[in-house]
Amino acid sequence: MKAFLERKNIVISAKRYGIDALGAMAQGLFCTLLIGTILNTLGSQFGIGFLTAQISEKVPYTVGGLASSMSGPAMAIAIGYALQAPPLVLFSLAAVGQACNTLGGAGGPMAVLFVAIIAAEFGKAVSKETKVDILVTPIVTTLVGIGAAYIIAPPIGSAASAFGQLIVQTTKLQPFFMGVLVSVLVGIALTLPISSAAICSVLGLTGLAGGAAVAGCCAQMVGFAVMSFKENRWGGLVSQGIGTSMLQMPNIVRNPRIWIPPIVTSAITGPIATCIFKLEMNGAAINSGMGTCGLCGQLGVWTGWLSPSAEAVKNGAVVITPTGFDWLGLVLISFVLPAVICPLIARLCRKAGWIKDGDLTLS
Fold first, then answer.
1. 98 with 194, same domain?
2. Using CA atoms, how far apart are residues 225 and 13, in angstroms rounded to an integer?
3. pLDDT, tens only, 164-216
4. Are residues 75 and 210 in the same domain?
5. Quick one: how far is CA 71 from the chain centroid?
6. Residue 63: helix, strand or coil by DSSP?
7. What's the half-sphere exposure (Cβ side, CA atoms, 13 Å) at 267?
8. Three-state DSSP state, 174
9. Which residue range(s) make up the domain with 78?
């Protein structure tokens, strides 16, 4: 069996499923749901005709709406790509992803993650084992995937949705405590080699919980970018500030204490976001886990003000006209506070000898 799995490139590991697959799923979600949401918002707010109009009488979608509707297939194919599935398996996962998103409801992304992995590995197992591979591999992948979706997608979707609702509602009731908890945990997930965006999307984090998640992610990205400016200069500022703080993971492994300033910063900015500015992220839930990456977190807050996502509407979100106070909160939480607080804490850590010159240098 070991030899067979090795020959088929079936690697059962936390890295393959929890890092590679989850990260790829987030990219699939980004390229469909998130981009679709952005296009819809741009079209409606700036009066761009071809973005607000239905594509045709036979296609009852806008451009952005069509992109968003393809999130299930895109996620499943992305997962298959991460698992290094052969072409016939990869292409068959489109139907599997659509089935998961449909049957899983609000928790569809979580269902896609589990089911696409199962379908892809079964498809890989039978791939090129028969002379009629062009029939056998797609049939096995499709039947296993849709069968698994039929059985486990509804309960997985319900469980993920319920847990996400618990976080969202608890944050409303306990904004300070949950502001700290959500901000710190999602921020840590952003820097770890896993996908905070996928986690937020799976859990449907919107509202105050989404705002706390945005705060935590920004604390990590902007915090690391500014506190390491001495070592990495402008290139590091840009690559970490609007790229990803994950670039610091090798340095964190060598010296975990360099993580103290961004984590403490997220514990400070999270409750400021929830208790003082009442910052809500009511765009697509994936934005909650993006931070300042491509300014997607900020775009999510903006789109949530003007056109709340379906998930956010279920939690009571409504269209608002943002005030100067709302904009001030977004700018302070996203950029100013992390850029000020994190370097100050880092300076204390340097004086204590916990962080030394070169510890934050990107390779």
1. no
2. 32
3. 889 999 999 999 999 999 999 999 998 987 778 888 888 889 999 999 999 99
4. no
5. 13
6. helix
7. 7
8. coil
9. 2-162
